[in-house]
Amino acid sequence: MSISPPRSGYTLPVFACASAIASLQHLHGENELNSVTFNLLEPPETVTIAIEQVARLNPDAALAITRSDPGDNLDLTRNTPIWALVERKTGNQEIEIQGGEGIGIQVDNGGKSAIYSYAQRLLQENLRPLLLPQESIKVTIILPEGKKLATRTSNAAFGVVEGLSLLGTTGISQPLSAPGQLEIFREQLKNLSRRFDRLVFCIGENGLDLAPQMGINPDILVKTANWIGPMLLEAQLQGISEILLFGYHGKLIKLAGGIFQTHHHLADGRREILTAYAAKMGLATPISSKFLTVAPAKTVWNICVN
């Protein structure tokens, strides 16, 4: 059966980079900026990103705005604006990158902005060739809706608060949460079922990367994204005898509460599920009731051990 793949989009670092490029070009006197073209690096291909607005704030500062397009993903950042403020500065550092409002803070890393290596590299390598001789700039990435959107993510479980992260290792946003992707996952599972009767379901990229490091045969790994329920059903239909679920505990907690499509757009309930199981196991009410007032599951664990 031929399945048309869902449409891919781009990750947040790509739109941040596009806004920064447009701001810098506007500082250099380019006024007609409807789009910018640059290299994604990962993968090494050129893309053109639309610019929604750009304006000079003063002779040494400009601001540009793009809007996120993650493709056919069920992504909460869809259409969110990404601002980049570029300011000329003095000093030896050619390009200084910082997070503004809506960019998360890494609480376990000295309060640094959650702008990770791919985003840093993308900005540095695409902006540097555009600098004038002896020019230095400060780039501030702003997500006006970032703080609000972050409350609907698991960022706090990974030590990022007050906003979203510019993370990822690629500029392409794979449509793992689009309905069409489920059919592709099912086809992959069917193919594997002809060779193996035991499989490992990897819930997310972290699980997919970590499993081989722990000695799990990479040939039996199946990416499920958030489609855990439908994939479990498909595994039963294909006669798979044993499945190991491997991934982030937050999504596994949802399974314990009967939530089998684990995307945050559809359901959460992690704290409530933990509280219910704690009560069932006889944990004292003053302790279990604290679960409802804390955010990450790691904090719940700390409450239990202390």
Automatic annotation (TrEMBL):
GO terms for molecular function: cobalt-precorrin-5B C1-methyltransferase activity. It comes from the Bacteria. Pathway: Cofactor biosynthesis; adenosylcobalamin biosynthesis; cob(II)yrinate a,c-diamide from sirohydrochlorin (anaerobic route): step 6/10. InterPro entries: CbiD, CbiD_sf. Keywords: Cobalamin biosynthesis, Methyltransferase, S-adenosyl-L-methionine, Transferase. It catalyses: Co-precorrin-5B + S-adenosyl-L-methionine = Co-precorrin-6A + S-adenosyl-L-homocysteine. Coiled coil: none annotated. It holds the Pfam family CbiD. Its EC number is 2.1.1.195. GO terms for biological process: anaerobic cobalamin biosynthetic process; methylation. NCBIfam families: cbiD (TIGR00312). HAMAP family: CbiD (MF_00787). Belongs to the CbiD family. PANTHER family: COBALT-PRECORRIN-5B C(1)-METHYLTRANSFERASE (PTHR35863:SF1). This is Cobalt-precorrin-5B C(1)-methyltransferase.
